[in-house]
Amino acid sequence: MMRKIRVPGSVPRAASKLDKKKKYLQIALNSTLEEAEKIIFSLPVSDRIILEAGTPLIKRYGVESVAAIQRASLSRSLSSPPYIVADTKTADLGEREVKIFAEAGASAATCLGVAPIKTVEYFIAACRDYGLESMLDMMNVADPSGILKKLKDLPDVVIVHRGVDETEKDKSKPIPYYQINQLKGGFGLMMAVAGGDSPKEIQSAVFNGADIVVLWKDFYSAEGNIRELAENFLREIR
């Protein structure tokens, strides 16, 4: 049996939970902390923007990536704590990885759907005990519903994900949009979509019932138009 985890008093206060009645834009910060700060300071203030400490950022800077995003966001908005996803893509040691990023101030963390079921269960339980929201990434999972049926407790969010490498040379692989309503209807979960770039793909994600649309490339190539780009996407995903 998994032991009950207690959160140290020094843990930064994370943002409130996601609202199932809202649609969110999640911006993945995947490069350097300097570029992440530049993007954050250019964004409009909105409770529908989620900031992600992307996997490359975490591997480069560790837990400091989450802390730095939190500091920049608080400085930018001068309001409540931002909602920050630590894209840990946990594949093992689910409890330990959640503990690390909870102490850094993350609001949510991610686990791979291809991880062992026991790891996924430890991850979800640890997120619950630490007050984080659990996100299960179904990249390269042929039968996401089969994974969910095996779990004792369900995650807060399921991510339908087409990997970056999968479209690096072949743009024909589709995002499995059909899984959104299948999982939403069958399990009542919030659904996120990652791996889309074009406006058409964003529209398809929302049309198919996505609650969260994850983007990153456009925000690194937008130069001085980051605020306008974010505002356009927020209008698109209402």
Q: Explain this structure to me?
A:
The protein is of the alpha/beta class and 238 residues long. It has a single domain, classed as Aldolase class I (TIM Barrel, Alpha-Beta Barrel). The protein has ten helices and eight strands. The chain has helices at residues 33-42, 55-61, 64-77, 94-104, 117-130, 144-150, 178-187, 199-207, 217-221, 226-236, and strands spanning 24-29, 49-53, 84-90, 108-112, 133-137, 157-161, 190-194, 212-215. An eight-stranded parallel beta barrel has the order 1-2-3-4-5-6-7-8, surrounded by eight helices.
Q: What percent of the residues sit in helical stretches (DSSP H or I)? A: 40-55%
Largest sheet data: 8 strands, parallel, barrel
Q: Runs with pLDDT <50, length 5+? A: 1-11
CATH class: Alpha Beta
Topology:
Blueprint: E1 24-29, H1 33-42, E2 49-53, H2 55-61, H3 64-77, E3 84-90, H4 94-104, E4 108-112, H5 117-130, E5 133-137, H6 144-150, E6 157-161, H7 178-187, E7 190-194, H8 199-207, E8 212-215, H9 217-221, H10 226-236
Parallel strand pairs: 1-2, 1-8, 2-3, 3-4, 4-5, 5-6, 6-7, 7-8
Helix pairs in contact: 1-3, 4-5
